[in-house]
Please model this.
Amino acid sequence: GRGDAARGTRFAPQRRRRRLLRGVQISKRKAPEADEMAPTPPPPAGAGAVVVKRGMISRLECENFKSYKGHQVIGPFKQFTSIVGPNGSGKSNLMDAISFVLGVQSEKLRGAKMKDLVYTFDLADKAANASRGASVKLMFDTEDGAEVVFSRHITAAGAGEYRIDDRVCTAEAYNDRLKDFGILVKARNFLVFQGDIESVASKSPKDLTALIENVSGSEELKKDYDGALRDRHRCEDEQHAAFTKRKGLATQKKTMKEQKDEAEKHMRMQEELRQMRVEHVLFRLFHIDADVERHGEEIEQAAEALTTHEARVETCGVEMEEKRKLKATHSKQAMMLERKVAKHRADADARAPSTAKTKEETLRAKKKLELAGKLLEKHAADAAACGADVQRLEADLANVHAAQAAFEAEIARDIAEGGAKKSKGSKKQKMGAGPGPSGAASGLDLGAAQIEAYHRKKEEAGAQTYKLQQELNILASARRDDESVRSRHASKRGELEGRLAALNQQRDAELVRLAHLKEKEDTAQAQLAEARGVEKTAADEKRKSRAKTEHFNTKIEELSGKLREAKADRKESDREVRAREAVASLKRLLPGVRGRVTDLMQVSQKKYNLAVITVLGREADAVVVEDSKVAKECIQYLKEQRIESMTFLPLKELKVLEPDERLRRLGGTAKLCLDVVNFDPAVQRAMVYALGNDTVVCDGHAEAKAITFGGNARIKVVSVDGTLIKKSGEMTGGSSGSLEAKAARFDAAEVEQLRADRQAAEGGLAQLRPVQALAHEEAEAAARLAQLERDLRYGAADAAVCAEKAEKLRKEVAAVEREVATTLPDLAAAEKACARAAAEVAALETRIHDMEDAVYADFSASVGVANIREYEAHNLATLQRAAEERAKFTQQRATLTEHLNFERSRDTEGPRAKAEADIAKHAAELERLTRAAAAARAETEASKDVLDAWERDVAAAKSEAEAVEAEVKELRRQHGSLGQEGARLQRAVGGKTAAVEALREQRADLIAAARMERLKLPRAQDDEGGAGDEDVLALPGPESGSGDDDDDDDNMDVDDGGSKGGGGGAGGGGGWRAAAFRARLDYDSLPPRLKQVPRASERTRMCDELRAAADAKAAALARLEPNMKAIHQYEGIKEKERAQVEDLEGAHQRARAAADLYAGFKNQRTAVFTAAFTHIAAAIDRVYKELTHSEAHPLGGTAYLSLESPDEPYNHGVKFTAMPPTKRFRDMDQLSGGEKTMAALALLFAIHSYRSAPFFVLDEVDSALDKTNVEKMAAFIRARSHGTGAGSEGRPCQSIVISLKDDFFDKADSMVGVCRDV
Model:
């Protein structure tokens, strides 16, 4: 690999060479600078060897490399180390290991690939052989004491890897680091393999040159040198070719100059002829204009009456137009007002749903407000009732407290009085029915014994009736519970019945509202259906209009394309324009002129167009006339007007044969040519003459050949592709633009039909309503439809809400009814339970009474009472009554307290406050809706007023329009009467202008003739003609050299170039004729003698003289045959000469640049090679003398190098001459083996001294030497290893030599032995 300096050296010249190859003009440059030289620039001649860093190999480590199994450490190596060992022990493999680690490729190391260098001789472990890798490490001690480890590895896959100090690197970096120590892998300046000595000794001079080039580095410049040499040769060839071209152009320029002068003379004569013809035309036009002016004055007098009449007509027309505009204004105003009315009504219709919605919301707000008022009244009544109940319960509670206090006072008085209440007893007895036991008992006054007996009996009775009393208490408690349940069920039933009535009322209201919404929904559905129909109609109409518009546009575009195509096919040449205009003039001026042949026939099928025009040939432009007299008149006209010649076919004089009927029965696609065209029978003779009576047309070329050559008699046949086969066998075919242009004449009718179809399509497109208007109507219908759909959605939503609410109320009613139904059994069961409990209590009380009567029987008899209860009721009732009364008072007080707490705990203010808030909210909403409804009503009223005003304006505008329409009709009638009178006056003026028109036509024909002859007539200064009249009336002169294209009768005419328009900016004949009528000419250049010719005879004579002079000049001009293109060709040659001069100068510069570049590379390469050669040539004699000197021959031998060519030494050989001591000069191949070896060693050591590596490895270089020479070589290598030899120049160089001779290795500093495993 090379370093950055090497890459810069190689690529910079290549870039310069590429610029030269691209033809870029570069300036002369100097030879490459010093920094663009070889990668390692050589020193100047005689400066000595190249100095690099020194060092030495300390040891070598091999692992599985070739014959070295496993890890092997070889060394240490001294300055002069000899490697010894028997043959086959692996000495050369050690040499290969050093070469391998220093970057030598595997093919140089006796191996085809990297894998061949791995140890694979382990027969015991074949699997390991396949996966084994190898490596070699070289420990290199630098001169400053550092150690650098170079290693190269072979992976198991056979890939290579480079490392420096155990860091992986690229091969380029590896070689660069070796190069820092002077180790050049490519030059192998550190190795001498076994056999290299013999190859060096037998090298030819060219091989020695290559070896020195490799060592010196000049070989690296060879590619750039060869490229620069090729560039120099190429540039020199280009320079020579450019010089040859310039020389040829000079000769061509001289010849073209002579032709140019002749062409200019021809142009001058053409200009003189043109002036003579212009003078002739101006002479005739001057007198025509004078006659026109005289007749014009007469016409002006006759036109004054018409002018007066036209003023009246114009006045009437202006007034009628004003009235029509006024009517249009009124109509437009009425239409605009109607649109405003329609839009206003649409806006009112759009606002109607919102008004209805506002009304509906107002009704709902009123109902909500009414319901909230009722709820407020109910909550107020509940609050008042609750307050009254609280006051009543508080009064009842106070009364209970007062009654209990009075009772307690009464009881206290009774106790204080001893329990006797006689006054009361007497009073009761008086009130009684009679003197019964009761009456007796009432007056009892028991003693202490009786009271004690009473208490004993009381205890006894209590003990006997204890269980019954307990049961009675339980039944009494259950009876009270049943009464409470019955009361609760009765209250719940009353509440449910009241709620049921309210729900039924609300449901009825919602059902009424739902029916109203359903009715509105049906109306909206009908309107929606109608709006959808309108919208669909508008969309359909718009779609149809758009489709028709696209159809018409497509059709117009298609027809326009066909017209453009037809127009391109029919693009006419100048000759075609002139011929067509000339035929038109002939038909107008001379009766009996029918027209051209192509204009008088019509091809039945379009595919025959080209075949028919091919058959016609020149006869396609022939003019059909009645007889020869008319033909002669036409020819005379053409001569007078200087029009190109034409062929005329006089119908009466033509001799033709009848068509051959046999040709109509040939079969296949063959047809008689006369049968594929249609024409007027009056011109049949001309058609037969032009097409031939025996010409056949068919579809294919093969069929045409078969028809022509297949029968007994040959026939003239043409195929539809235009291939013509004549009777003689001559075949004519191919593509011709002129034939296709002529064939397009048959499509003139089709083109006119296309124009008519396009005009009809444009008319149909104009009658369609604009898509934008229809889209606007569709948008309005869509907006109306969207509004109706929105209203319908709102109504449907309200209906859904209403239905949902009604359904919810129905469900609540059903639920309440079910709940009411469930309370009836509970209430009945509670009432039954109450009755059953009362009966049980009464029965139990009877049993208790019976048991008490049995216990108290004796006591009752002793005290004179019927039963103890009577006693207890009247005599012992005081205390018991007191207890019972206290219990009652307690129960009443507890009941009243509970009821009072319940009434006080009821929230009557919250529902009332909520009801008041709902009333305020609904009132505000109702007020807002009321204002909105009032605003909507006001807006509706205002809109109605505006609508009424607009409708009145519409009626007024329509009335005014109708009045103006009546006035317009009257003015139209008057204008018609004036028009009839004006027509009469115009006919009078037309008769007077007929003569002027004839003169103008004659004037136009003269200008047309001048136009055909390319004559430029002078225009007057005050001419106000059109902007393109100048181009129309004065075309450029005809192209020179365009002779007649006349061929034989059977050949076809071909137009040259054939697509130049003949009318300039005006197009067809109408353009130039209109321009001819407008043009005003300048007659100042006309001599006075030609102006002052009043008599017609004199005019005719002078006209003939002018024509004769022009004809003489034209004859003289026709005798000249110049090359009219020579003028332009001469200028082109001058331009080519200028370009060639520039090319020649560029070639000179490129040649100089290429020569300079080549010289730079040559000098650089020569300097590099010469520096190496000088050093080697100086060193080889010293080395050879040291190798060959002895005591008998102290001076030693002589060796020297010589160059075959000192100019470019690298392209020639280097001769090596060696003369051993006492020997005369001989060639190298005449020396002995030892002598050759010593000479080769001297050459190798001399070369190595130029780019000396820090070490030198040699492999059995002493094999061909005898003992004496071996000792000499050993001494030389030892001295060189220690820096004392002739070639060392004081710098030691480590030497590692493989040798088998003891006379050699006993001189070494150390020995390394190599042998097989033992």
Remarks:
- The longest helix spans residues 222-416.
